[in-house]
Amino acid sequence: MATYLAKPDNLQTPVSASDIVRFGVIGYGYWGPNVVRNLDQLDRSRVVAVSDKSSSALKRVAKSYPHVTVSSDSAEIISSPEIDAIAVVTPVWTHYELTKAALENGKHVFVEKPFTTDARQAEELIDLAARKNLKIMVDHTFLFTGAVKKIQQLLEQGTLGKLYYYDSTRVNLGLFQHDVNVLWDLAPHDLSIMDFLIKESPEAIVATGQTHLNGLEDVAFITVYFPDKMIAHLNVNWLSPVKVRTTLIGGEKKMLVWNDLEADEKIKVYDRGVSVTSREGLYNLLVNYRSGDMWAPQIEQVEALHQELAYFVDCITKDETPMNDGKAGLRVVKMLEAATKSLRQRGALVYL
Amino acid sequence: MATYLAKPDNLQTPVSASDIVRFGVIGYGYWGPNVVRNLDQLDRSRVVAVSDKSSSALKRVAKSYPHVTVSSDSAEIISSPEIDAIAVVTPVWTHYELTKAALENGKHVFVEKPFTTDARQAEELIDLAARKNLKIMVDHTFLFTGAVKKIQQLLEQGTLGKLYYYDSTRVNLGLFQHDVNVLWDLAPHDLSIMDFLIKESPEAIVATGQTHLNGLEDVAFITVYFPDKMIAHLNVNWLSPVKVRTTLIGGEKKMLVWNDLEADEKIKVYDRGVSVTSREGLYNLLVNYRSGDMWAPQIEQVEALHQELAYFVDCITKDETPMNDGKAGLRVVKMLEAATKSLRQRGALVYL
Amino acid sequence: MATYLAKPDNLQTPVSASDIVRFGVIGYGYWGPNVVRNLDQLDRSRVVAVSDKSSSALKRVAKSYPHVTVSSDSAEIISSPEIDAIAVVTPVWTHYELTKAALENGKHVFVEKPFTTDARQAEELIDLAARKNLKIMVDHTFLFTGAVKKIQQLLEQGTLGKLYYYDSTRVNLGLFQHDVNVLWDLAPHDLSIMDFLIKESPEAIVATGQTHLNGLEDVAFITVYFPDKMIAHLNVNWLSPVKVRTTLIGGEKKMLVWNDLEADEKIKVYDRGVSVTSREGLYNLLVNYRSGDMWAPQIEQVEALHQELAYFVDCITKDETPMNDGKAGLRVVKMLEAATKSLRQRGALVYL
Amino acid sequence: MATYLAKPDNLQTPVSASDIVRFGVIGYGYWGPNVVRNLDQLDRSRVVAVSDKSSSALKRVAKSYPHVTVSSDSAEIISSPEIDAIAVVTPVWTHYELTKAALENGKHVFVEKPFTTDARQAEELIDLAARKNLKIMVDHTFLFTGAVKKIQQLLEQGTLGKLYYYDSTRVNLGLFQHDVNVLWDLAPHDLSIMDFLIKESPEAIVATGQTHLNGLEDVAFITVYFPDKMIAHLNVNWLSPVKVRTTLIGGEKKMLVWNDLEADEKIKVYDRGVSVTSREGLYNLLVNYRSGDMWAPQIEQVEALHQELAYFVDCITKDETPMNDGKAGLRVVKMLEAATKSLRQRGALVYL
């Protein structure tokens, strides 16, 4: 990568696969330490510098990673010629500015989800990266978990048949955010997973919810209409006494339950379903239930973030477009925007 | 009761407490046998006659209850001078006609939920019963379970503090109905419980959902807006591979989880919550989390239907108005009507 | 059967299959009502008479089954020429006398488990029945559950491979018995299931336990040694705050967990195991773990007692020996005797 | 500590509280990295050197802790004047030699459980440490978990009343050990917890079990008899398809279930019990069941090893005897020896 950055006039040449991608990480709060640890462990990447506003955060970096430069000024890192890629691990309202500056300085960007606070920003960043031939990867970490990969396989193989619904419950106590409501905090997980799993594009969104404490919605319910009678629903809540991470996916042939809190058996596939034999008129419909075995496939046990960052390094060195690129980030932001609009109008249907 | 019916000109006189209420039961399908069994076991009631369209159902009655008159014609039962009260245990579209006929024949009526298919019918029946000084009880069975009674106590004692939300998931595979969608089939349970537990009147409803098989919605999501930022949400689904009966209730002081499928420990009360200390401006809000013990109160183990029917007999003999009277039935029907209207308009806000 | 009883000199001739087996039931406490209900529902059996010491029990019989003769004197029933078979549903210390009298009066006997209080009694009854060409069936109800039948299939098909261990936990609060300890109360379930599932004969037993309240052991732990390194273990406890009904079965190829308290998914088969590659000496053993999918086969949903009684009626009318005959009952009693002996000697090894 | 070690003639003077305890760690396999990480994080301790036979282990140390000396020779570390205390994190058969050498070199010792392979060794080490005024702490980590501390409090406060039984199930798939059987591998956890929680001394042990694969028992069941009818039971198994970590503790007043695999609600206290009212003779005993609320106390969330090592550093600097000292280690070893002896004789009662 060093040579790559030394030859800015030759952007089309992918870097040699043997090169190391040098990272600057901005933000060392809750998630930043995981990003730094994984980048540090990968063979093909190196963490050169970390910045954070908090001096105690920087002290923690210095203690764990004595070889890493620390700085309270992100601009230093963004402009450093020693750095090939920036990881933006900061609150969402800072993503646009930091990502833009990083791209303008010729850095690839790994950015937390949600990508930006609105679609316009996301589009601008996508364009800028394209012009500069730089990669954007939005941290849709769940796509790299064993569970989501297994579900994706099952869907691709047609195991579930035509999809009827996707219904996720993602509730727990806190953490309250100051800058985003529960929808922008928790729903990006589900929306990015749905964006990955469901081939059809969503048509419209209805969202309801309520604020109770600090003026931001802490409870929200989102319905997403897809073509061909597929429907999705999300239940996100910061005020639940118990943690729930359960998704039901119903298909014509089979149905599955994904309980992400189970240590083993995260995914259970049920050989259950309903079929209707139509005869003459409503009262002659014959509904047949099918009830059979349940099956819990072995799930790959991996640290998703590790795989995601390895994939990002690969995409950079091989000059390939990540599946969770800026466009994927934009699709999620568009759904969040639509849901917010609907929420403010108490469930008004908002087309995408 | 016999003397009571013999003196129609003296309706104001409550029957003597020693009297037996004589029942005719219309409908002996899924739920009817439970109604008959419980009425047969009560000291103060007697089942005189049962009617059903199905001859095999009537055979089953004759085998188990040789002393009971059976008939394929409900009109016979409704007009019988030997009968004081009618239990209407039939599909919802028949409730209005049967209840009306029963009331016109001077019978008290115990009727399955939902009360009627529209509010107008319910209002007409309420008026008719009032004019005739007859009781209507709508079979909101859940109000008589140990779990709902315990929750009601906790709310009344202020254990949970001001309510923030009520969130119920009621999903399973089937049973598909020919005449009602999943909303009219499953939501009456939750709506009647909410009507009982929540003192405030609901303001507006948003419902979304989808049909997949026979033209009736098999998946639906309902949000109910209450005054003062209380919000309720129901998730009902006939296409779930697993059965879920879980309600989260969040309050300012405590939160509870009611899992009706647990054998013991149906209700867990969590000493968890969030409070916000406001200082200056949004970024100075201080959110405090409280996490403490969990407590599962002992729940009364009773057959709810038994208690409900005993209460109905009491209301008749003591001339008292049941809490789950026609008006309670009407309130649930109004919510179902509003939800249906919203569902058909993909989430339009419908005021109540 | 009527003709059969009329021709005592012609015992070899099986009764015609179209005949009805007429039952007398002795004991109408906890389990008796289930026996009566099922015998009453079967096409090919009829309950003629029920006896119990308690007059309130007899009143309940009379209310539910007006056509059945009731009596406080079991001898009347045992000697009735109207009766072909006796169901002995009484405490264990009465089994021997009642069964003996029934056999002497030419009746087939269905008797609660454990069969008798000692092996000598069991042997005498088996001999008597053989001489009289009468059937004894010991009520090992669990053999007729969907779960045990499925496990038996899996074992027969070799799905689990060579068996390593069978480990059952059967604990709950009470019911304390006056006449038997927890071992004689709860262990017969497991011992009869093991007798059915495991082809090898047990070699020796070690039992430990403790009395705490009324002089009878309320906690007991039993180890059963089988040939070829198969080992079984039972944990029975009347003083557990929670109810547990879980059996682990480990085999060379696969392992299973049977949780009888699960509504669905009672049996989970795990594609997990361990194999050892032996090289030279202990420290060169190579242990290989295999971890794979889990699979929960669909279990037949039936009332086990219904199937068992239907099978008993079949065995009588077809003159066939039940699998859960007196000999099976004897094998269980021998294990109980050995366990009791070991328990009294604090774990002494008792050979079978 | 440096001054302390420089003044061996002045052993009575506790080191100043501001001193740092300098550690050498022997063994960097499965558990060693946790010991090193925690010692490194404590304010009052420092890891000076780590030894392991494996060069790849030493490479991992060097990468994570560049400031730590690594060595393949444990003798170097044991004799180093720069070191105050040795952590022995190696297989059990090496504990005696390494601990002895460390004590002889004037080092305090933190040693993995089980303490030694036999009681004689343990006694010798205890004597040696006493003569040298050095501390031994046996790593009974569980004593420092929030769950065990909470149970200890409940017992001390008399919440459960007189203890009836302690029943632990600790089963999972592997890991197979080459040098110890399942009893020496898994039972030390339970035996050390019991040693901590139960005030009475155990009287006798019965153990049964079986070898299946490599000549070492992989399934074992241990009964421990205590005075006054208290009984304990352990079920340990390396061949279970599922992981179970559940302990039932039954007392006269209340009973508790400790499920260590639960994220929250690890301990549930049940207001359930049984009492017997004695009248005249066995058949007049009156057993009363009490069934009430369940309560899950909030459990402290801490890393037990962190607390344990901080406590060890405290014991050294304040010259105090740890509760989990060599004598506690010895008591556990004696129970393991007795259990092994019983196991080899198929359940023979072995007195302690």
Indicate the CATH topology of the largest domain in chain A: Dihydrodipicolinate Reductase, domain 2
Q: How far is it from the N-terminal to the C-terminal residue of chain A, by CA?
A: 40 Å
Q: Give the rounded overall mean pLDDT of chain A.
A: 91
**Structural domain count of chain A:** 2
What Rg of chain A do the Cα atoms give?
Answer: 22 Å
Report the structural category of chain A. Answer: alpha/beta
In percent, how helical is the residue content of chain A? 25-40%
> Biggest interface: chains and residue counts?
A-B, 59 and 59 residues
| Helix/strand order of chain A, N-terminal first | HEHEHEHEHEHEHEHEEEEEEEHHE
* CATH superfamily caption of the largest domain in chain A: Dihydrodipicolinate Reductase, domain 2
Short description:
Chain A is of the alpha/beta class and 352 residues long. Helices cover 33% and strands 30% of the residues of chain A. In chain A, helix 2 crosses helix 9, helix 5 packs parallel to helix 6 and helix 6 runs antiparallel to helix 10.
Q: Could you explain how this protein is built, in words?
A:
The structure is a homotetramer of 352-residue chains. With 352 residues, chain A is α/β, with parallel strands linked by helices. Chain A has two domains: 2-142 and 305-325, 3-Layer(aba) Sandwich (Rossmann fold), CATH 3.40.50.720; 143-300 and 334-351, Dihydrodipicolinate Reductase, domain 2. The first copy, chain A, has helices at residues 2-6, 32-41, 55-64, 74-79, 95-104, 119-132, 146-156, 182-197, 304-317, 326-344; strands spanning 21-26, 45-51, 69-71, 85-88, 108-111, 136-138, 163-173, 204-211, 217-225, 231-237, 239-251, 255-259, 267-277, 286-296, 350-351. In chain A, the strands form two sheets. In chain A, strands 14-13-12-11-7-10-9-8-15 form a nine-stranded mixed sheet. A six-stranded parallel sheet of chain A has the order 3-2-1-4-5-6, with helices on both faces. In chain A, helix 6 runs antiparallel to helix 10 and helix 8 (182-197) crosses helix 10 (326-344). The model of chain A is unreliable at 1-17 (pLDDT under 50). Chains A and B meet through strand 7, strand 8, strand 9, strand 10 and strand 11 of A and strand 7, strand 8, strand 9, strand 10 and strand 11 of B.
